[in-house]
Amino acid sequence: MERKFRKIVLFILLLMSVFVFFELKKEKKVEEISYTKPEKFNINKVDLNMSLKVPENEICEDVEKCALLGDLYLDEYYFDFGEEEFEEFETESDKIGDMDARKVLGLVEVKDDKLDKIDFKMKANQEKNFREIFNIFVKMTPKKWREDITLVEAYSNSFSAAYVSTTEDSLEEQMLGINVDDVNDSKDGIISVLIHELGHVFSLNKSQYKILDCEEVEFGNELECFLDDSYLNKFYKTFYLNVSRDWRENSNKSEIDFQKFYEINKDNFVSSYAVNNIYEDFSDSFMFFVLNQFPEEGKAYEEKIKFFYNYPELVLLRAQLLKNIVDNDLHK
């Protein structure tokens, strides 16, 4: 009798587990189809004033002159590594990788533009890559644009070439993550990635959002935590009000749906990677702004590049970045 009772109990438990399994599958399926069908959206036009004065500096006076100066350095940059190679790089993109997949090797403090003592183990080639990429970032980027970077993380695996986040101790300080494996075959690949990450640095720093009276730590699609005049809020209001709410964050979409949305709206993004969310869209558009001359082909996504010309300080930054790259031979 006791054996029979145990069989009955086991049978009931089996039925319950099967029921739970199918319920979970059903819930997962609901989650997968809970967003609306991808639709095409329109890009707003950007009005420009190229006569605006830029912040005081020693290389150019206004937006127009700084843009032309940047173009001159860009011509030299193109000449040194080849426009064909650059265009090939521009087309490489995909969905955001899994951050948890990276293997963190250690953290290093930044002191006076230099890496502090490295007290963790890396292979010789990994440490070489780590130091080289950090030095490129420092030599390329004007000090005021990187002063919030107080920590550098060394990691390996195929998560990403680099990333930026706030530190665990403070939302006011930032950390630059560097993949120490050989993730880029050329200097221009490293430079392009670092320019993309710089877009995150200045758009997500302490001057851009409300640290107090804002419960969100990871910023939502509506950018509740960002100040009205922040770069991301302006970018959002210029380009994202026409985008369906279900398609403003796409890193969580299936690969098939992600590609469907991209194919429908290919003309609205500088790359497929920019489709992930507004943060990647902003930073990839910034990278294209720095590494391309003023867009004049009439494509919809060019409005996102023109957006940055409305900020004299960013047009000056572009000229400074390209000047520093060429003058310091960082691309060779």
Q: Overview of this structure, please?
A:
The chain has ten helices and five strands, in the order H-H-H-E-E-H-E-E-E-H-H-H-H-H-H. It is about 45% helix and about 10% strand. With about 325 residues, the protein is an alpha+beta fold. The chain starts with a helix and ends in a 5-residue tail after the last helix. Helix 2 packs parallel to helix 10 (about 310-325) and helix 5 packs across helix 8 (about 280-290). The longest helix is centred in the first third of the chain and has 31 residues, at about 1-30. A five-stranded mixed sheet has the order 2-1-3-5-4, with helices on one face. It folds into two domains: about 45-95 and about 210-330, no CATH class; about 95-205, no CATH class.
Please give a quick description of this structure.
The protein has 332 residues and is α+β, with helices and mostly antiparallel strands.
List keywords for this structure.
332 residues; alpha+beta
The run of helices and strands is: HHHEEHEEEHHHHHH
Could you tell me how far the N terminus lies from the C terminus, measured between alpha carbons in angstroms? 82 Å
Which class do the helix and strand fractions yield? alpha+beta
Mean pLDDT: 84
- Count of helices? 10
β content, as a range?
A: 5-15%
Task: List low-pLDDT spans.
Answer: 1-31, 81-93, 217-221
Shape, please? globular
Whole-number count of domains: 2
| Helix content range | 40-55%
Whole-number radius of gyration?
23 Å
**Annotation, overall tally of beta strands:** 5
Spatial strand sequence of the major β-sheet: 2-1-3-5-4
What is the multimeric organization of the chains shown? single chain
